[in-house]
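Record type: monomer structure entry
Structure origin: computed from sequence
Chain ID: A
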Amino acid sequence: MTPTLIVSLIVIAVGAAALYRSVRIVPQATADIVERVGRFHRTLNAGLNLVVPFVDQVRSRIDLREQVISFPPQPGITQDNLVVHIDTVIYYQVTDPKAATYEIANFLTAIEQLTVTTLRNVIGGMDLERTLTSREEINSELRGVLDDATGKWGIRVNRVELKAIDPPESIKDSMEKQMRADRDKRASILSAEGQKQSAILTAEGERTSAVLRARGEAEATVLRAEADAKAQAARARGQAQAITTVFQAIHEGKPDQRLLAYQYLQMLPKIAEGSANKLWIVPSEMGRALEGLGGFFGAPQDSRKDVISEEVSPDPTAFLESPFPDEEPRF
């Protein structure tokens, strides 16, 4: 192998190495920090970039995407001297790769320590109850302090979230008892309101039912009265028609005294059936009718007249005497 060939191969190898070192491909959402002879030269953005080989050197690659870092629980003392442990989550993003590389040695450690100290300061100005109920306020204060402090480092803090706030065990027991008491109180209130509504609805239902029953009874009474009135009117019309018919029949038959006496004798047993009948009065016209009736059946008129005379007392005051001495005479 001749010296010329050897030199040519060396030149080709050096050229290939220089070309390889002069071409830099930077991925999307990242940036490369380039130093020339130990000093910052420039920042390589995403895409194809050329550098001077053996002179420019890429020191670090910075991720420009939003990052999430979670810190372990940190203790803090509240204003009422209670120790709470708080977990925090921070969302940050590198906005200046040069400042994040040269302004601070390790920005993650710096963010963590700054978060711990700021959180303790914020918690120290609040009592436990406010600490548990003011997460949004704590997040805002933490974000404001961290964003101001990390701005010169080329880092922007987008969000700060509190994952958990753990009070002491004794406080947890007291809080659980208070929660149970509040739940029992709300349950009692709801139960009382339910019973009240039930009683109101029951009373309204009973009142409505009573009104409906009263209306029904009133309507039934009216209907019964109307039916009784109609029945009485019908009975009256029937009795009137019967009386008219009997009257017409009697008028057409032209009855004499003997027929009337005979009808009276038939009605006497029915009149005697009454327990209150104590005195019978026989009209004088009835005596003459009975005499005629006796003649009709063939009996001598003198004998029938004697009988009637015996039945009808000649004493005009005889009918005033009551068969019951203890009672007053009836007319």
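Annotation 1: Residues 169-253 form the longest helix (85 residues).
Annotation 2: Residues 179 and 278 are 96 Å apart (CA to CA).
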